[in-house]
Amino acid sequence: MDKFKSIEAKAKAGLSFEEVFASPEYQNMLLSMLETTAKIAGYRRNTKLRVNIINDSDGDCPAYTNGETVHINVGCQFAERLKKSYNLYNLFVVGLLAHEEGHILWTDFAKFNQANEAIKSGYIPLGDDLYDYDEEIENYSEYDEMLANEKIGRIYLLNYFHNILNLIEDIYVNAKQSSKFAGNYRKGIAVGNALIYEESPSIAEMAEMGLSKAVIYSNALVSKLKAKDVYYGTPEAEEEYSGTVNYIVSEIATMIMATPEKRVLACNLIICHLWKFIEEDIQNLKDKYDDEDSSDSESSKSPLSPEQEKEIEEEIAQIMSGLQGQTEDTKDTSAIAQPSAVQKNDKSLDDEKSSLTEEEHEAMRKALAACLCDGSSSAGTVTSEDYTAEDVDFNSILNGLAHNKAVDISENAIEKELNDDIRGDYGIADSSSGATINRFRSIPASNKKYYEHIANSIKPIANAMVKEVRRIIKCENLTETRKNRIGIVGKKLTTNKLYRPDYKVWEDREKPKKIIDMAISVRVDESGSMYGDRIDTARVSCVLLKTVADELGIPIEIIGDTEDEIVELYPYCTYESTDGNDKYRLVSMTDRWGNRDGYAIRFCYKRLKRRKEKHKLLIIISDGMPAADNYVGEAANNDLRVLTRQIKRDGTAVIAFGFGSDAQSLSSIYGKSFVCYEDLSKVPKAFAKVLKEQILRNL
Question: Which terminal residue of the chain, N or C, has fewer Cβ atoms less than 10 Å from its own Cβ?
Fold first, then answer.
C-alpha cells in the first residue's frame, strides 16, 4: 500500500484542470450544494434543479441559468489566471453557482420583462413612481420625450436600461445569497467580485480607450457597489468622476435591496443623472444616420431601413460591450429565469497574465479580503485565512479523483503484466486462437451486496482459522529472555544492573523465527459443467481463501478460466491489486464454456513462480477432465500429470479440489494432491483445514 500511496500522491499532484472541473464528481458536488441551499431558501418549484458543466474555451459566458439548470462553463477564459490554484478557482465556480441560483430564487423576471417592454413601447417603466419619488428630478422630461419620439434614442435606451438593470439585479442576487448563506457561497461571490475589479481597466484607462462616458460612469457605479471601491487610475480621473459616482450610489444604494420596482426606479435614476452623457451617445448616432423624421411625435415608426436599424443595434451593442461585469441577455420573456453571467474580459486573454505568479496570488488574496458583499449595498470583510483554509468537500473530490487515477494507473500496469504473461510456451495446451484477459474494472453495487452476504456466511470459519493460526505462531515464537545486553540491541532496562561499567544493563527476547512466508495461487475451472451448486461452492470457497489470506497477510491470486474459441482468463484477485475491489470481483465468478486446464494452470504457475515468498501453494478447483478444442482425452490428461509433477519438483505445493461425483476421475491426474467432495456443503470447512495445514507446515 505504501507504493500505492506514492502513486496516489503523484496522481493528485498531476490532476489536470479538466480532470477536476469537468469531472462527474465535481458536477455532483455542485448539484448537492445547489439542492441543499435551494431547500434552505425555501425553493418550492416542482421542477428538479440541475447543474451542467461545460468545457468550452470559445464561450464568452462563464455561467447562465434557464431557471431550472445552472450551466457553468469551466473552460471560459474570463478566470484563466485563477486556474493555477484549483482551490481558488473552485471558489470562483461556487460563486457562479451561487449567483445563478440567486436568479432562480430571488429574481422577479415578470417585473424585469415588464420594465423592458415599457422601454420598447416608448415610455419610462414606472415613470409615475419615479416622478412621485422626486418631482424635481433633473432630465426626467428629456428621458420621457426621447423614448416617445426618437427611434434611435429608444433603441439606445432600451439597450442601456436593460444592461443596467441586469447589473443591478446581479448585485442584488449576490448580496441576497451572501446574506442568506455563509461559507463558500459567500467566499465564491467575493472571488467573482474581486476578479472583475482586478481585471477591469482603471477609469482613466477606459477614457483612453474611448469608451462612452455613460458606460464609464456605469462601470464606476458597479465597482463601487460590488467592491466598495473604484480604481480611478489617476487623480484627474478621480476628481472628474468620483463626485457623481458617490452621489448616485448614495441615491440608489438602499433601493437595490428593496423591491423589484425599486430596482427599476434605481435604473431610471441612473439614466436621469447620467443623461447628458447618454444624450451625447444618442446624438452621435443620430448625426451618423440622419434620422430626419425623428421629431414626428405622432408616430414612433422609424424611416430607417431594416439594414440601418440592424447596424444601429450592432453599434449600440458595441458601445455597451464596454460595461464591466455585464450579464448575458434574458432570452425568454417571463416563464423562467434566464442566462445571466459575467462576460469575458479581453484583458484576461493577455498571454503574459494567463497564470498567477506567487506575488499575484498573494495580491489576489488580499484583494478578496476587501470585496465580500455582506447582504447590504456595501462590501464586508473577510480574512485571507478564510481563503487558505482547507475546503473539505473540494479536497475530498481531489482525493477521490487522485485515488481513481492511481487505481487506473495501477490497473493498467496489472493488465499489461497479465497480457505479457499470456505470451510463452504452453505446450500442447496452447490455443491456436490465442487467449485474452478479462479483468473487471467497474464493480456493480449488486456485487458488493452479494459479497457481504457470502462474507457473513463464512465469517465464523474464517475467524476461527485465523485465530488458531495466530495462536500457534505465537506459541511457537515464545523465546527465552536474553540478559546483560547493551543499549543498542536491548529493549528493557534492568535497574538492578545499573552499577555495571560496561553498560550491559538491558534485556530482551530472542527474535521470533516463525513467520508466514507464503504466496497462494488459485485456478478455478469456469466451464459449463460447473453450473449451479458447484460454481456457487467455488465462489464461497474463494471468498473464504481471500478473507483468510488478507487477514494473515498472505499474497493471493485467484484466476478463473474458460474457453470459447479462445482461452479466456478472469483475474478476479491479483497480487498487485490496490483498489480494494478484488473481493467484490470474486462474486462475478460463473459457469461459462469449455476448459483448457493445462493453459490456465501454466499461466497461474508462471505468475506464482515469480513470487519472492519462500513457500508457494497452487490450488486447483475443477469438476472434471479437460474439455477444449484439440485438448481433450488422454493426451490432455497426460499433459496435466506431467505438468503437476514438474510444479511439485520445483518446490511448489499443489492441491486439487474436485467438486461432484464425476470429479473422481481427476485422481488419476493429480494423485495424492487430489481431494474430492461430493457433499459440497463441507467444502468451505475443508478448504480452511487444508490451508491451515499448509500454513503451519511451512512456518
Answer: N
